[in-house]
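Hi Y.,

Following your request, here is the sequence exactly as I used it, all 96 residues.
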Amino acid sequence: MECKSLEEVRNNIDRIDAQIVKLIAERGSFVKQASKFKKDSNDVKAPQRVEAVIQKVRNLATDYGADPDMIEQIYRVMISGFINMEMDEFKKHKEL
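Below is the corresponding structure, written out as tokens. Let me know if you'd prefer a different format.
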């Protein structure tokens, strides 16, 4: 899609940002659910799973023409935040 103005570019970026945030929120709801199935904090941190996800998204980035290094950076920050959130959820379930 070739935009004809800066306003059109910005409108498209805003539209995509809304979709990204919605998908991150959806991902977060599944992360919270995952905490119910973990037996300890090591399962929550799951470093091998993190690295598998990173490799997967790097491959996807290449497939879609995105910069794999940038995608990795974004995902590492996002996953770190989700691990913190999941750890809080995990602690709640263990207190019940």
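The chain has one domain: 6-95.

Thanks again,
Q.
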